[in-house]
């Protein structure tokens, strides 16, 4: 009985930013558990690489190109899937950006606005567009990628725009969870620590900060994308059927103290 509760056969799972990193691992976890996966990526090349990895492993998957900052495009994708009889029953709001390293007094307007556009507006546009179909169907599960930075003002680098955007994601999770529970739609979030993906490794400054950060991490290590994906699968599936509005730390104990 318990293993069956992690199965997602019959579900259509949309994963934004599913072409690489945590999104791709989440897509793999959901596909492995039986879901048909739809990757939504703004960059076709990135999306195609992820899609090919899923298809090569024998999974059911497709790629739709779209930028989560476009409310109209997200509505179009949600409606088109529903019109094909493949309305999403699972949505993983994974697409996100984060640079960091700039003190608040030096953050430019463009960095602030772009971070909010992708990390906050994008999550809202997708949740609203796909959520409408879940409400109509009377069931659905949304998992948002929050961050430990949405819970604490994380050290060792300044990153106010990112922290604020992820705090907004955490509160959006609770707000929608409370509203949509009577409609059979659950909304939860994971709040990871530093995970070894391009988002972190592409910035050489992060390597310099890592020693201080590891010192403050009870488990003494950063995480891997598959370790976040396991939590995403748990929250997306019926295994977490009594959970909604939860912000689940996947952070090696970082927020324990
Ligand atoms: P990556 O940068 O490796 O992957 C993010 C993916 O999202 C990329 O494929 C990217 O595509 C895509 N994306 C970005 N913006 C958009 C957009 N506007 N529309 C559609 N797709 C978009 O990041 P991670 O896998 O590390 O992060 C995934 C999520 O997890 C993010 O929300 C992040 O904030 C969160 N997270 C990550 C942590 C980490 O340490 N890595 C820690 C805590 C949370 P493109 O190539 O076009 O940019």
TrEMBL record:
It comes from the Bacteria. InterPro entries: NAD(P)-bd_dom_sf, Sc_DH/Rdtase_CS, SDR_fam. It comes from Kumtagia ephedrae. Belongs to the short-chain dehydrogenases/reductases (SDR) family. GO terms for molecular function: oxidoreductase activity, acting on the CH-OH group of donors, NAD or NADP as acceptor. Signal peptide: none annotated. One of its GO terms (biological process) is carbohydrate metabolic process. This is 3-oxoacyl-ACP reductase. The keyword Oxidoreductase applies. Gene3D superfamilies: NAD(P)-binding Rossmann-like Domain (3.40.50.720). Keywords: Oxidoreductase. The keyword Oxidoreductase applies.
């Amino acid at each position: 009985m318990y293993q069956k509760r992690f199965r997602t056969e019959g579900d259509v799972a949309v994963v934004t930013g599913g072409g690489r990193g945590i999104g791709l691992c989440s897509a793999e976890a959901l596909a492995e558990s039986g879901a048909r996966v739809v990757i939504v990526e703004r960059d076709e090349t990135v999306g195609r690489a992820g899609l090919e990895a899923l298809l090569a492993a024998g999974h059911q998957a497709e790629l739709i190109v779209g930028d989560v900052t476009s409310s109209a495009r997200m509505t179009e994708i949600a409606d088109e899937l529903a019109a094909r009889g493949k309305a999403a029953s699972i949505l993983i709001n994974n697409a996100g950006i984060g640079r960091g390293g700039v003190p608040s007094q030096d953050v430019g307007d463009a960095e602030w606005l772009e971070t909010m556009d992708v990390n906050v507006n994008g999550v809202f546009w997708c949740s609203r567009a796909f959520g409408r179909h879940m409400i109509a169907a009377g069931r659905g599960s949304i998992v948002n990628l929050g961050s430990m930075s949405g819970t604490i003002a994380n050290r060792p680098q300044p990153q106010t725009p990112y922290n604020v955007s992820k705090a907004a994601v955490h509160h959006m999770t609770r707000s929608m969870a409370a509203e949509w529970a009577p409609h059979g739609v659950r909304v939860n979030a994971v709040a990871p620590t530093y995970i070894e993906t391009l988002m972190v490794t592409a910035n050489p400054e992060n390597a310099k900060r890592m020693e201080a950060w590891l010192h403050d991490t009870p488990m003494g290590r950063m995480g891997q994308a598959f370790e976040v994906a396991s939590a995403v699968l748990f929250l997306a599936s019926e295994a977490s059927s009594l959970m909604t509005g939860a912000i689940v730390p996947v952070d090696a104990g970082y927020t324990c103290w």
